[in-house]
Amino acid sequence: MRTKIIVNPMANKGTCGKRWPQIRAELEMTLGPVVTDDIVQTRAHNHATALAREAVGAGYRRLVAIGGDGTFSEVLNGVIANDRPIAPDLVLAQVPGGTSNELSRSFGQRAIADASRAIASGQTRAIDIFRADAMGYSGSRVTRYGFLLAIVGAPATISWRAQRVPLFKRLGPVSYVIMTAVTALTYAPRRYRVQIDGAEQSFLSWGLLLCSFDGAGEGLMLAPGADPSDGKLDLILLGNLGRWESLVKVVPKLGDGTYIAHPKISRRHASRVTIASDRQVRADVDGESIGRLPMSIGLLPFRMNVAANRPSPN
Q: CB–CB of 153/292 below 8 Å?
């Protein structure tokens, strides 16, 4: 199977680029020599999407993203068009090099050697893919395909702030801790109109999470027990939380997932969700701020094969 390696040298504050010679050496110990023509590096935001599409057009059927979940998500968006894969028998892979490497963590391949063995083995696991449509910052509708999570409200605001304040962005995962505390003390719940698989309801909420995997970010356990291939999204509703309540009783428990036991937080499964608000509320997919509400999220009728050492429990 022809393999294209897409490297994001800016992942993890540029650490990925500095470590690329070491990462390449470890890959070649398992995969054998990698020719230069099979390697490309991103030069800008969302460049991996264009590189992935070009690679598939050139006949590559296995794409390896060297970076974090954001890089993997960009590659994913390059191989889907009109809600379908642009070619059959595609296999995607992640070699962990970013700030957040949830795909690698979930499948037990956080080490480069483990990720390399997963690629070389040919073993794959099919994961769910969803489509998100929102109002872009330019005022036009935007579409984004995701594999990890979609978030709105306070969680999306935390992500947006952490990535756009230059000083905090250089701090990596620490920036999310700081911004979570700041947002908890300043963000007031909004009223949302939400359709969950066709049933509509209205309520005050600090934010909503739609998770396919159990974790996200670096060390967050947002949906304990979530299965990325069960054909369902885990919808977590963060209720009408007060500022001190969110800071003291919710935020400290995001690491082990016990925050879900809070009486103002609920969880259920869903396959299609539409979220709207009269307020301007940010929307985020796979750690990338895509715009504002309204946003609709729906699972697609296919799964994507990814290289994995850990087979599906099913």
A: no
Per-residue pLDDT of 247-283, as tens digits, reads 999 988 988 999 999 999 999 999 999 999 999 999 9
What is the mean predicted confidence (pLDDT) over 283-301? 97
* AA identity, residue 126: A
Domain CATH for 41 = 3.40.50.10330
Query: Taking a C-beta distance cutoff of 8 angstroms, is the pair 10, 100 a contact?
Result: no
* pLDDT tens, position by position, 192-227: 999 999 999 999 999 999 999 999 876 789 999 999
**The domain containing residue 58 runs over which residues?**
3-122
Does a cis peptide bond (omega within 30 degrees of 0) precede residue 173?
no
Angstrom distance (rounded) from CA 142 to CA 132: 8
Same domain for 78 and 202? no
Going by C-alpha positions, the residue among 265, 151, 252, 259 that lies closest to residue 203 is: 265
Q: Any idea what the Cα angle at residue 52 is, between residues 66 and 127, rounded to 5°?
A: 75
Task: Give the end of a domain, one of 106, 122, 138.
Answer: 122
Share of the chain above pLDDT 70, in %: 94
User: Within this chain, do residues 140 and 53 fall inside the same structural domain, yes or no?
Assistant: no
Q: Which residues make beta-bridge pairs with 273?
A: 196, 297
